[in-house]
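HOLO CASE FILE
Compound: zinc ion
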Amino acid sequence: MRKDKIFCVNCGKETENLIDGLCLDCYSRKGGFASIKKGRLKIEVCSTCGSIKYRGKWLKEDLEDAMKRLVIDNLLISKNISWKRPEVKFRRKGKTLYEVVVDIEGEIGGNRVKEEVYTEILVDKVSCPTCSRKAGKYYEAIIQLRGNERELDEREIKEMEGFLRRRMKEFEDSGRGVFIADRKKVKKGLDLYISDRKVAHSLIYQLKEEFGGEVKESPKLFGMKEGVRQYRMTYLLRLPRYRKGDVIIIDERLFYIRRYSSKGIKAVGLNDWKDYNFRHNEISSCKVLDKKDVIREAVVVNKRGRDVLILDPDSYKTKEILLPRDIELRETVKIVKYDEEIFVIPEG
Ligand SMILES: [Zn+2]
Ligand SMILES: [Zn+2]
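Model generated. Tokens follow.
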């Protein structure tokens, strides 16, 4: 069977491939393969934090990268040609105006095609929703960090706040405009005002997971919005009464806490020097001794096997005690003085 001959309408050449009636040579010389949306392109940039609006989201990114993407999004190029990635160049024309040149290169049937497209981008300086809310100290939840029947110490507060800020940064980096609207050091701990209720909820349970304790949630009505009640949440995390380095009493026996985790504690029994693991809920009613009152440094005067003579640091009288095990002791040891008794805390 004979195939019909086809001819280019421009040069009359016989060919097998025609695009719009033209042979590949004529088609590639025709031009007009690329164009860009008419009029100036506009990009919204927050004048405070520099984030850039893209498809309804505010992203922290480089302005040139965002402008490039805007240009490419608005570029129309013919599908008949295989294009290389266009090259976009900017020239600042005014304070908020950029001139844009796009160099486009492609190929069709072995013929190189080159075009240039021009446009302008207007940078619109605005305030992003996060920055507007920040300016108004907007918050949806309060995270309260407290200790149970005790004040949190500086180190605990620093660790918990550091942890929270790192986790919050992760939300921020994923494009969620969350921030701490206010920070109030209160007598017994710390209050952090968080702009996003859902993020605050996630944070409080992450804190609990990391530091232990109990969470209490309480909503507070603060107004109506389009007929819907608006709540602010208070998320309270209460750390247990004890912490690492404390001495606690369980069933009239003394324990020194060596390690603290979200799940529980590792402690050494001061009577038997054995290691114990307790879950927080098992020992929630234990007695906690104030370490300032009970833990001391004391001098070892004499030692023979398990029998040691210790100088009471308060009365300067020597006291005989029997260690649970015979071990090497330094010249000074850590002791617990409680109820006229002295216990040596083993090292380790
Ligand atoms: Zn032709
Ligand atoms: Zn902003």
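CASE NOTES: Residues 257 and 278 are 10 Å apart (CA to CA). The longest strand covers residues 111-126.
CLOSED: yes
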